[in-house]
Predict the 3D structure of the following.
Amino acid sequence: MASIKEQFEIPGKLKTWAYALIGIGGVALLYGMFTQGFSTDEHEQVHFWGTLMYNTIFWTLVTNAAMFFLCFSTMAQAAWMQSFRRIAEAISTLVPIFGAITFAVLIYVVVSEKHHIYHWLDAAAVAKDPILKGKAGFLNPTFFIIWTTLAIGLWSYFGYRMRQISREADENPMDHATAHSFNIRSMTGSGFFLVWFGLTVASTIPWLWLMSIDAHWYSTMYSWYTFASSFVAGMALIALWVIYVKNKGYLELTNSEHLHDIAKFMFAFSIFWTYLWFSQYMLIWYANIPEETVYFKHRVQGAYKPIFFLNLVVNFLAPLLILMKRSAKRNFTLVAFMAVLILFGHWIDFYQMVMGSLMKDHVTLGWLDFGILGFFVGVLILMVARSLASKPLIAKNHPFLKESIIHQV
Amino acid sequence: MAQKKFVVGCFDDEKVLFPAVKQVRAAGYKIKDVYTPFPVHGLDHALGMRETSLHTAGFIYGITGTTTAISCISWIFTKDWPLNIGGKPHFALPAWIPIIFELTVLFAAVGMVMTFMWLCQMAPGVKKHHFHKKATDDLFVMVIECTDKTNAEDLTSLLSSKGAVETDIQIAEEGWWFGTYDTENDNLYNNVAH
């Protein structure tokens, strides 16, 4: 494997773009923070902190999905993703960074008692509200802070452990016994991550961070819906980076066979997302109970109607029809386009999940949303590129690497 | 029901089979098929077979299922027998989605299985000629259909020289016909030892 380029060098153009996005986005973020976030008008406060919240939660969960992908693949002893695993690892290094931002924002919102965002923070209102009183064991500031700290901390730690284990495959060739113990330790490490992922992303964290915005309302589909949304966006992000890095002349061992399988995930989980979207919607529509329909009332019939249905077109119809064909899943240009579309679609999905509840009367999508988005994308580009450049692009002594090289769909 | 002449070459190793396939094709013969005991990766490409259209057929069956479900259920609930169910509109699309989905899957699945069986010429109660019984055990059986120009002896010796462990010239029925293997004399189970 003498011809393999192992060392990624960050292209100058990418850096320029990243710094430009961070600069412009950072200005928008700070301007928004001082004019709206710290303004005395509660409406403006809710607008700013809500916008920042859905962006930072979205990007934390999406980057965390990259580690989730690595862990469940490791658990299944899958080999096909070994040729580009460093891309997913590099994306997952963003979890501590975006996690820290999420942590700061959420703790600020809870500590400063922004009860227009989280209604359950209003102690006086909870005291005379039987529904909120019933939920108080779960929805209270102490538990929120502890669980948020644990969630972000352990995602970061278990992810870090997985990346450390993966680095062992860089050094010396492994004999059979070493490879066996390496395999067992990888699987154990991913086991820890997966269990914690199940207890957080697939259940409690979306309830705490997002669903509790509508403090009275609940849906048993909500967490899986959020998970599906972030996971499919995570796969799209991996696809985008794989295509970009390959276009720059690296990743010689990754080809359209691997792309085909990544695109299958994008396709399959777009449909999975729709399945959850529909399961949540139909049961509420069918039962037609006011305390449940309140969530959909202003989304389906109010100001958010265009976004709500755009969401379905971008995240379901487009992937379904465009990614269905085998040749489409093997086409780098088309998959790159679909990856951008899916990422945008699920960002919009998170937008309507949060802002649809905070700003019921009008759609707030504007400079602040795109500014903050630009900031996060800039940080993402810069840090993923740095992480890629800091270690070999291929885990060349990984026991499963050969299986990945000859992978055929 | 057409009897045709075939040249059959049997190989016992994939590593011999692949170069042989390549050279037989290069010599200008058209290989009808290679019967193998298990799926062999890349053999379809080596044989120069085109990509299957089965999934296109599946898509069409699926769309047919969707259309059938939508037209049927909307006619029943809005025209033929409108019912007031919990005050819902007669045209209650969300409630129909599961049925539309199920019918799409049913049509696509059943249609594709039947098409697959038609293409592979296999079904319960029909019979096909087996060029070599051991194609289900441990031999890769390459079959070339003879045309008027084919010199069967030349081809046989070509196959032997490329590593075929057994060669054969057979006049056989090309398609499928009604019958079962266990009721006929020339059946799979009696002859498996040879």
